[in-house]
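Narrative of activities, Objective 1.

The group set out to show that a structural description can be obtained from nothing but a protein's sequence at a throughput compatible with the screening campaign. Below is one input-output pair from the validation batch, recorded exactly as produced.
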Amino acid sequence: MSGQSLSQTAYRELIRRILEGELKPGDTLQESRLCTDLGMSRTPVREAIARIRSEGLAEQSGRFLRLRRIGSEEIEEIFFLRRTLEPSAIRAATGRILPEELDGLEDEVRALMRGGPGKDDLQWHVDRTFHGTIAIAAGNPAVAKVIHDLHMRTCIFDHRVVPERFELGCREHLGMIDAMRQGDADAASAQMEAHLSHARDAIFEHLDEVPATASEKAPSE
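Output recorded for this entry:
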């Protein structure tokens, strides 16, 4: 396996642990310990940790790099930007996105609904694919990168934290797919804006339920 593949494997495993609550806000990302846990050398683990940090999920705290807790002000900022960018992105993507891409997105959403809200991170991956595919289809790589990074910063708020959003979110995705398939950019844009507003509101209702570790409140060393 190439170095890049190892780095991607390490990154995906760290994201899985964050999504499933094995790594919580306040936990340290210690390179040596993670190398042992993952059975990898320092280089791919270091690259994975750097990527986690660049996506806003971790920050330096004294001598340690710790997973961040996302507060209400930051969530408001994230969704302000997403509601600014993504309705425009889906408007631009309508008519550009390939029919087979829409079919693939619909298949993933419907398969997720049939399987129900499991304990793994499948829902998050389907959601990331949905928003990422639309952003890329809009034809502006810089905007697509910003949307990806904003999405990553709220990745812990999946169906395990906001369970009421599982089926509703899936149905909203299907509605947007249908609007794009019909070439109705106005409807797709309006539905995206409503979808993001609903997600934001649900996150605020559950914000205090995200688990933290005792070390999160510990003084910097």
